[in-house]
């Protein structure tokens, strides 16, 4: 295969057969394109007899996210593939394995996760996952710590920063999360019934200040190699196992961004449960599991991150008394602020979440939207004052009560 | 000229003649190598009849700063040349013009500043420069503002960050400023008589915490394209004019670092005046000019930066109420901390300043060293509490008084 072109099913099968020792000689391979076609082609290739399978992902040179197409660098396939390899190296049980790749064709051949469910869908159905907080806390702690100056030679880290400069994908985040929701923009997307909320976002000066500070952090802090888009649609899950996929937004940014993404998506689902669980006790039980899991994600991250720091930090001043505590507090405050920004953009911005948008009943959907916006705003407005994760519990419960919702 | 090799005088003259329209056809050109040979060759080429002259600077593939040679990337010549061009574009009267360059040969041909004096030498001689604060304040404000996300398209800024990743030169700063002075290191260099001060630096936990925070900022904040080594040896000056040279340490870092460098070098000279000015009234007058100029550098920077922000900011949230004030306060606190770190390393670290090291009288030299260290520590220990530049005045005066020195 020479110059870049979109793969055919036949070419995908040829790539699949080329993985050394994976498929049997002469195996009959079935190939289906299963992507949504917005940003990437995704081929699922399966040995019809043994059932063994792989995924081939190919980046497309555009995104269809804004109605018409938006050009996107194919280099993002290399960035995603390198990020997957680094994350797999650091958390082999939590990230799919890359079998082979072709950067010119923007192609990555990787482990298939067909046995897993997309976490967002499972959460909408009211499922809970007892190991999720442990798994994702460890993933975040290990991938952030080991790619930071705390654990890397600063020269090697700078070369890694350079390889992960990701302007096209960062621009999507900068526009959709840190700009559009706070002004009139054709990219915004919300029902007329919450125009009052949207207008309030555009005129809230205190909120604009905090979002400006969060935006600045996203633009200027090369703390660690982030996943960059760690929502529950990028997490494949079973009762026992968790896998993090799709790091095409990977770049060096502020650690709190990845943690905030996980918390935001748990809390969006919490708001969405207003429209999903008919039985109130059942609904409240699930919402409380989601809230507790948000806190646990942080706690597991913090415990693991502190342990890694104590055992593996190479920064010559890492053990200065008080430094670790101040560092953790900064990450917590950032995580809370970013969580809020990510909740708001999923309600009024371009790209939404099924947890809320697919709620069948209009009134319940509106209640969920208003609760999500209120929680998002409260997280942003309080993030610089927070010194413990318990504050999130308090903010969510107080905001819900103020809105007449009971958790 | 093909592959990299150190230039000869004859080759330098050929390069000089190739600048279109600069030297007369057939002019007799005199060439002298005037560098100190540590990091670069510097050729001064002059038309013996008209007196017109240029400088040719060539990077060497090593540094002699640590006794034996230390390999250094030749790419730093490209970085220095691109930084000079950006800074000249933004401040044409404050930066020498680049006439031509050859990245493969690590060569830059540029405006000669033979009419200027190196500011450090002039300050040691007790000279004052009434326009210096205005000039350097404008240089810092314009170069930092226009290379930041406040004024650039974030995509173009990211590509610029990528071009200015400068691991070799940053490592020098990271080791010599943010590491060695706080531990036993062969790189450290100070007289036995101040061993008590050196030991105090190695055991001061509160200081280590603040230096850890400053080091982290140096490692992780891509706020603006810094000069990166803005001491008074990188500033050429006359009564009327100021020129900033040698940005080979340029990289994207925290804005306060450049401002702190200027302030540190003014305050090092202030401490050094203990050994230079015999007449006490004269000494105190000069020290007070240096202190006032430190404050003025900040004030000019701040006024110009705020004006540029009001008139030219493109960041969509730049005008959020309160954001500019918080931003300026962060830069001030960083500048004060970095100033302190730079003072300390010039007393106990590898590389010193003539302002203090060449003081003839040993007792006076020691007094100057102790004053510089005390001021440096006080700046670092107080930096996170500072909210106005007047605090520097207070810190310097109080520290001097505590040491029995009168300003």
UniProtKB/TrEMBL annotation, chains A, B:
<dbReference type="GO" id="GO:0046522">
    <property type="term" value="F:S-methyl-5-thioribose kinase activity"/>
</dbReference>
<dbReference type="InterPro" id="IPR009212">
    <property type="entry name" value="Methylthioribose_kinase"/>
</dbReference>
<keyword id="KW-0067">ATP-binding</keyword>
<keyword id="KW-0028">Amino-acid biosynthesis</keyword>
<feature type="binding site">
    <location>
        <begin position="246"/>
        <end position="248"/>
    </location>
    <ligand>
        <name>ATP</name>
    </ligand>
</feature>
<keyword id="KW-0547">Nucleotide-binding</keyword>
<feature type="binding site">
    <location>
        <position position="229"/>
    </location>
    <ligand>
        <name>substrate</name>
    </ligand>
</feature>
<comment type="subunit">
    <text>Homodimer.</text>
</comment>
<dbReference type="InterPro" id="IPR002575">
    <property type="entry name" value="Aminoglycoside_PTrfase"/>
</dbReference>
<comment type="function">
    <text>Catalyzes the phosphorylation of methylthioribose into methylthioribose-1-phosphate.</text>
</comment>
<comment type="similarity">
    <text>Belongs to the methylthioribose kinase family.</text>
</comment>
<feature type="binding site">
    <location>
        <begin position="111"/>
        <end position="113"/>
    </location>
    <ligand>
        <name>ATP</name>
    </ligand>
</feature>
<feature type="binding site">
    <location>
        <position position="40"/>
    </location>
    <ligand>
        <name>ATP</name>
    </ligand>
</feature>
<feature type="binding site">
    <location>
        <position position="57"/>
    </location>
    <ligand>
        <name>ATP</name>
    </ligand>
</feature>
<feature type="binding site">
    <location>
        <position position="345"/>
    </location>
    <ligand>
        <name>substrate</name>
    </ligand>
</feature>
<dbReference type="Pfam" id="PF01636">
    <property type="entry name" value="APH"/>
</dbReference>
<keyword id="KW-0486">Methionine biosynthesis</keyword>
<keyword id="KW-0418">Kinase</keyword>
<keyword id="KW-0808">Transferase</keyword>
<feature type="domain" description="Aminoglycoside phosphotransferase">
    <location>
        <begin position="31"/>
        <end position="264"/>
    </location>
</feature>
<comment type="pathway">
    <text>Amino-acid biosynthesis; L-methionine biosynthesis via salvage pathway; S-methyl-5-thio-alpha-D-ribose 1-phosphate from S-methyl-5'-thioadenosine (hydrolase route): step 2/2.</text>
</comment>
<protein>
    <recommendedName>
        <fullName>Methylthioribose kinase</fullName>
        <ecNumber>2.7.1.100</ecNumber>
    </recommendedName>
</protein>
<dbReference type="InterPro" id="IPR011009">
    <property type="entry name" value="Kinase-like_dom_sf"/>
</dbReference>
